[in-house]
Amino acid sequence: MKLLNTGGTNTKILKSQKGTEFKIASLSLYPDDLICTGAKLADCMRLCLKDSGFAQIFESVNNARKAKTDFWHYDKDAFKAQLIKEMKAFIIKCKKEGFKACFRLNTISDIPWHKHGIPQQFEESYLYDYTKVASRLGKTPANYDLIFSYSGAEKYQNQVKQALKTDYPISAVFRGNVPIGKYFLGREIIDGDSSDLNNTQAYNKIVGLKLKGNKAKKEKGLFIVEPWQLDQSLNYAA
Questions:
Q1: Distance CA 188, CA 165 (A)
Q2: Of all helices (H) and strands (E), which one includes residue 192?
Q3: pLDDT value at position 238?
Q4: Does residue 156 contact residue 38 with C-beta atoms inside 8 Å?
């Protein structure tokens, strides 16, 4: 079983690496409360991206993700050994093609890879992820950047407030069009759908993401920002 997607078939990965010096390899697991420890507080599992994209069409997509998640849970040492092997192979491939290697290891999960020593073994490469655990911000190696992920769930607000005390980018999912140039949580909203590599450097900004997935578009969720919330957000950080 191969762990990494190195073909750029993920739409966001493909858009992010286009025209850059990087090639991006990604790891897609099937999320649960163990590999997404902030999901319960954020109340985001029900409308998670696990049910969007190709996963809506092909059952085999999530079956493969579940197999990888099971592998992680039952034999972490073997999982990490294979992951490291695949990352090394990808780095060699990128060098041959004249690119730098980049990794997103939490495409739909939230594992603290720096606590497992993975980024530290690949200082010549760049890693990035989204996270719902604010305590991880500012504690990763220099080659590993994080973007905090917003939710409006009441029990999650201490996490949001902790993230707002930093200058790290905060991503937020908006219903309808992303209101670029407007403000949320006291920060200016930028277009976050064009490139994740740009998003990691969007300090003190809200990385605006358009709501995806047919199921999510029909339902309400506390991690979704509704248009009416924008005008009330300017005093949030006070």
A1: 15
A2: none
A3: 40
A4: yes
